[in-house]
Amino acid sequence: MEDKKNKKIAIFLSSFRAGGGERNLVNLANGFADLGFKVDMPVIKPVGQYKEQVKEGINIIDLNVGRIIFSIPKMISYLKKNKPDILIATDEFTHIISLVSKKIARVETKVVFRMGNMFSILFSQYKGFKQGFLIPFITKRIYKYSDIFIANSFGVADDISKVFKIPKDKIKVIHNPKSVEEIKRMGKEKTGHIWLDNKDLPVILFVGRLRVQKDIPTLMKAFKEVRKNVPSRILFVGIGREQKKMEELAKELGVREDVDFFGFSENSYSFMTKADVFVTTSIWEGFSNSLQEAMVCGVPVVATDCSSGPREMIAPDTDLLYRMDEGIEYGKYGILVPMGGVKETSEAVQKLLSDKGLREKYSGLSLMRGEDFDSKKILNQYLKALDLE
Question: Which of 149, 265, 285, 301 could hold 334 in an S-S bridge, CB 3.0 to 4.6 Å?
């Protein structure tokens, strides 16, 4: 193990801005550093919320470029000079730059692609020449040259195998790492929101970016039905382009007074530990960070059985590639509903709010499942996959 720790690990990011992939790689970097590995973090634009979470001793390397493509010469120079044993990247841009830079630098660095999204869906959403054509065109031709793929879910593994024609034995499935102890510590803090710190009605919680992918209209319409039978409120923690539309929808549905958009929080865990139910109605995910964290915090969860992630967390003993299209599934660790299922989502939330026993049962099961995502356990899986044990 001592010899292995002499190896250098480079974790390549576009920025430290709020995003699931960035947060997970910061967690990984910290974990590797805690084990004594030498860790570099080349970053195209080293700005964003997660920079402050990088532990001392990790070498942040500012590539200092205005446009992503200009980072290639800097990465070539970095690779030639430092010769890291492993280079981990997590988005299409850093993936491409990693492979091109390694090829030109002619180093033995092992390139590892962390894959955290459903690329078949992502590519269908892209518009314009650069994202709509060029990125899919390039990635489908060069991704096969990565040494290792680490998918954060079985759904993502299946998807990238099909999209990029990658042999499945080249793909390892490792879930997102979560600092369980830190999340629970932060969860005890006050939220600064009167609905939770001085609760007088049940609160339904959503945490995440407010964008089309999250299908907030389904959740808002479901809340309207919940509110008819169970006096309650819904709180959205996060920012995004869809906020104004969702504010207008809340008005149209007549529920605006019991809907609040809190914005971004540095500590969403404090909201999770105090909410009565956590709900996500996404139409696709990689492996939902907020759903993982809600389970670590012990809040009962309701999630759509979307393309990847929720089923693996909530019903891991079932067929992970199956997708329900009707009804409610009371899973081992939470409740699954079909995508776009306003009626089913409403009924599942109402059941949890009105049945204290069921709510307490799923709260305990969430806590139990959350332990599976602890950073130490996940890091051991990375060590094995990267031959660093």
Answer: 301
Work out the pLDDT band at 252, boundaries 50, 70, 90: very high
- Strands lying side by side in the sheet with 110-115: 59-62, 38-45, 8-15, 86-89, 110-115, 148-151, 171-173
190: exposed, middle or buried (Cβ count in 10 Å: 0-12, 13-18, 19+):
exposed
Residue 309: both structure tokens together? 């992630």
Please, what is the end-to-end C-alpha distance for the chain in angstroms?
Answer: 6
Report the 10 Å Cβ neighbour count for 26.
24
Whole-structure pTM over 0.70, yes or no? yes
pLDDT at 175 over 80: yes
The Cα-based distances of 9 to 57, 113, 114, 308 in angstroms read 13, 13, 14, 29
Surface-to-core class of residue 51, CB atoms within 10 Å of its CB (0-12 exposed, 13-18 middle, 19+ buried): middle
Rounded distance, CA 362 to CA 331, Å?
A: 10
Mean pLDDT to the nearest integer, 219-248: 97
Which pair of structure tokens corresponds to residue 142? 């060069």
C-alpha span between 11 and 311 (Å, rounded): 29
pLDDT at residue 18, rounded to an integer: 66
| Secondary structure (3-state) at 53 | helix
The C-alpha atoms of residue 133 and residue 140 are separated, in whole angstroms, by 11
Measured CA to CA, the distance from residue 81 to residue 340 in angstroms comes to 52
Minimum mean pLDDT range among 3-17, 24-38, 353-367: 3-17
Residue 1 has what pLDDT? 47
Tell me the C-alpha distance between 42 and 11, whole Å: 7
Instruction: List the domains of the chain with CATH numbers.
Output: 2-177+374-385 (3.40.50.2000), 180-373 (3.40.50.2000)
Share of the chain above pLDDT 70, in %: 98
Can you name the residues that pair with 10 across neighbouring β-strands?
40, 87
In 83-199, DSSP assigns E strands to 86-89, 110-115, 148-151, 171-173
Sheet with 203-207: list strands edge to edge: 259-263, 233-237, 203-207, 277-280, 301-304, 335-337, 329-330
